[in-house]
Amino acid sequence: MLDGRRVLLIISGGIAAYKSLELIRRLKDKGCAVRCILTRGGANFVTPLAVAALSGDKVYQETFSLTDEAEMGHIRLSREADLVVVAPATANLLAKMAAGIADDLASTALLATDKPVLVAPAMNTMMWDHAATRANMAVLEGRGISRIGPNSGDLACGEVGGGRMAEPAEILAAIEAHLGGGAGPLAGRRAIVTSGPTHEPIDPVRYIANRSSGKQGHAIASALAALGAEVTLVSGPVTLPDPAGLTTVRVESAADMLRAVEAALPADIAVCAAAVADWTVANRSGEKRKKSPGAPPPVIELTPNPDILATLSKPGPRRPRLVVGFAAETEKLMEHARDKLARKGCDWIVANDVSAGSGTFGGDSNAVHVIDASAAESWPRLGKDEVAARLAARIAAALEGTP
Ligand code: C5P
After folding, report:
1. Which of 19, 215, 223, 227 is surrounded by the most beta carbons within 10 Å?
2. Is residue 365's pLDDT more than 90?
3. Is there an atom of ligand 1 within 6 Å of 326 CB?
4. Topology match between the domains 6-179 and 190-282+292-399
5. What's the pLDDT tens digit per position in 394-403?
6. pLDDT tens column, 229-240
7. Best of 271, 279, 309, 314 to mutate for ligand 1, by most ligand atoms within 8 A of CB?
8. Which helix (H) or strand (E) holds 201?
9. What is the 274 CA–ligand 1 centroid distance (Å)?
């Protein structure tokens, strides 16, 4: 599927650069042509000779090298590729990309390219969590740049946290999702993912909501797409950009979410990661509720919302083959999750602890237990992207060999 495709790989300066050598090898094994730009920083970690030997091509290093420019200008270099991959992408290079700075060959090629760009960030956890890096990443994603990782775990600097570059296999899967035209273990499968909170209107200006950020659901949608699934992401109101490579339907209330989910059927896979409000306002006012001196405060009457997960799980011809629900609990996690599995009729429950101090709601990591009818699997605390990648891989394995 990558045979004959062309990747421009930009290797910037981080210890994770050694993993990019492995990535080059894997891409070459698949018949993909890999041309590499090695930044000055990158060359501190891997040698041009190693990159050239593995890619089977010359390595491009300096913008103003007369020979490089004569043989292959930066414009051509950036355009004669089907995909530009930046791995590792340092905080510095991400910042330059966000600002449009072009002061070396890598940043110039990134500014000049008209091709899709995939970045694999790698840095110290404080640098990844820094508001500046977050803002730069949000700008880049808003422009349609795709991101894979970073994962969380042990970092080369001795700290533990987010910032570890995605593994070569994960980057390869993301490249295949971009270039393979729907190839991957979930190619030909349709998936629906719900994500984010819902807003239940009280009147035209007020609503009931919750603290869900949508990060986990959005990451799952991207991870399923990266494995080749055709994904519809039905998202409540979130501040996240619409992920690349899939269809996002934005909704407000639970009723809207159910309608959008039903419109997206049929599907092979449904993952309900949204924090759907349990109740909506029965006495919703068409006009803004006014306060008047001396009058008692208004009473908001609640009525149950439709349960999207339970609706999807109902046996019938339109039931997705695999329905996965989430259980956000603050106590008796496993007990409630098992109960939910039975009550909702879904196949798996991903249970997470959202008690105060867990950092799950709105945070970037999650410690989950995956529970099905026969077993429970506990995963360590991982970045939400990594939870998503693992869950997508587990889904692909469960569906393997099924029609
Ligand atoms: O019942 P509870 O809200 O704890 O169940 C959580 C699971 O059910 C999540 O997967 C959530 O997306 C889903 N859900 C739903 N529709 C609702 C309520 C919850 O799909 N109205």
Report:
1. 223
2. no
3. yes
4. yes
5. 999 999 888 8
6. 999 999 999 998
7. 309
8. strand 200-201
9. 7
Indicate the pLDDT class of residue 78, thresholds 50, 70 and 90.
confident
Q: 99 in helix, strand or coil? A: helix
pLDDT over 60 (residue 64): yes
Question: Under a CB-based contact definition with an 8 Å cutoff, are residues 211 and 197 in contact?
Answer: yes
Tell me, yes or no, if the pTM score tops 0.85: no
Write out the CATH class of domain 6-179: alpha beta
Distance from the alpha carbon of residue 278 to the mean position of ligand 1, in angstroms = 8
**Strand pairing report for 322-329 and 348-353:** parallel
Q: Pairing state of beta strands 247-250 and 230-235?
A: parallel
* Cα-based distances in Å from 257 to 193, 221, 240: 11, 16, 17
Instruction: Please confirm, yes or no, whether 32 is among the known catalytic residues.
Output: no
What is the C-alpha to C-alpha distance for residues 235 and 246, in angstroms, rounded to an integer? 12
Maximal C-alpha separation, the chain: 83
Query: For the chain, which residues make up each domain, given as ranges?
Result: 6-179, 190-282+292-399
Q: Does the CB atom of residue 194 touch ligand 1 within 6 A?
A: yes
Which range has the worst mean pLDDT, 11-20, 250-259, 355-364?
A: 355-364
Q: Long-range contacts for 207-211 (Cβ within 8 Å, ≥24 apart)? A: 207/252, 208/277, 208/279, 208/280, 208/281, 208/300, 209/237, 209/277, 210/275, 210/277, 211/275, 211/361, 211/362
Task: For residue 264, give the H/E element and its range.
Answer: helix 254-264
> Averaged over 214-222, what is the pLDDT?
94
- Say if residues 339 and 345 touch (Cβ distance below 8 Å): no
> For 190-282+292-399, which CATH superfamily applies?
CoaB-like (3.40.50.10300)
Query: DSSP letters of 202-217?
Result: SSSS-EE-----SHHH
> Rounded to the nearest 5 degrees, what angle is found at the Cα of 301, between the Cα atoms of 297 and 303?
165
361 close to ligand 1 (CB < 6 Angstrom): no
Return d(Cα 108, Cα 286) in angstroms, integer. Answer: 54
